[in-house]
Amino acid sequence: MAKTPTAPLDLSDPDLRTRLLPHCRVQPGEIWRDGTSGHIVGCGDAADAGFVERLCESADAAALAVHDPPYNMVMGEKRPPDTYATWCRRWIDLTERSLADDASLYVWLGADQNDHFQPLPQFMAMMAGTRFDARSFITMRNQRGYGTQKNWMAVRQELLYYTRGNPTFEVQYTDIPKILRGYYKDVGGERTENLQRSRSETIRAGNVWVDIQQVFYRMEENVAGCYAQKPLKAIERIVAASSSEGDTVLDFFAHAGTTLLAGERLGRRVVTCDIDPIFVEISIRRLERWREDGRPGWGRSHPFERELSRRDRHELAAVEAGLGRV
Ligand SMILES: C[S@@+](CC[C@H](N)C(=O)[O-])C[C@H]1O[C@@H](n2cnc3c(N)ncnc32)[C@H](O)[C@@H]1O
Hints:
By secondary structure, the chain is an alpha/beta fold.
């Protein structure tokens, strides 16, 4: 879902793409290796076996994959849902080959309420035919939505959690304080109240996440032009829950490089790719920006501030100024 009513940097605009592509250091089929933390970032198709094999060949088997494919609804070409599920099966099979025996897989997905909730049911049915076990169906609440006039506002974002073998799982806590007292239980002959027994002052993250702010242009982590950027907090929650320091984490749909940045911040090695060289370049620049001065994104600016002229910057600023209503 778009982060702003009119994206300040429209990376689908052919003229803009023509100007930016020469500045992308990783071209289709190429793979960039990070000399500092060992991350690997490729430009290629997640469903192309030859490309994915090359991408993953030098990495350890991954403990975790976090995939956020295009949802077959908002952006890009819309395929019949079964065709979409067949395409998903291809990158799911390639993921399986690159995972450790004990591993977790998370997939973000949409459900189009105007079209029988596709492609969620088709994807779930496809996964039932794989060797992954279904573990949780998480819903993250977005702050902005669509369909408010004659329907319930659509503010949910679906996240499916699968495992195989017996992977690590570390309980995660939100920032929401525990306020409910009660639930008395006898422990060692003593009557204890639930707050005494708990390991945290704040509540555990369950399978409904209401505590994560959707990314928008006023946030420092914002990456202009990345219409589908996930909040860093959400990806870090997944990485922290389902992998350990030093583990390899896969993400075949890099976009704004959120998994790459989360992995860098949490000491994981990330193997990621995107079919679009512009998003590959943005992902690498985001990592570099974080290393340079600890900034997680560009806020009101954008990743190509060096390349775009002063006039472009003024135009972007004017568009952003018109977005004050968000
Ligand atoms: C929903 S976005 C991912 C968002 C990402 N999780 C983030 O937080 O920025 C999907 C991305 O998948 C990429 N993509 C689409 N088809 C692809 C394919 N066949 N192989 C690899 N990447 C693909 C798109 O270019 C887009 O950047």
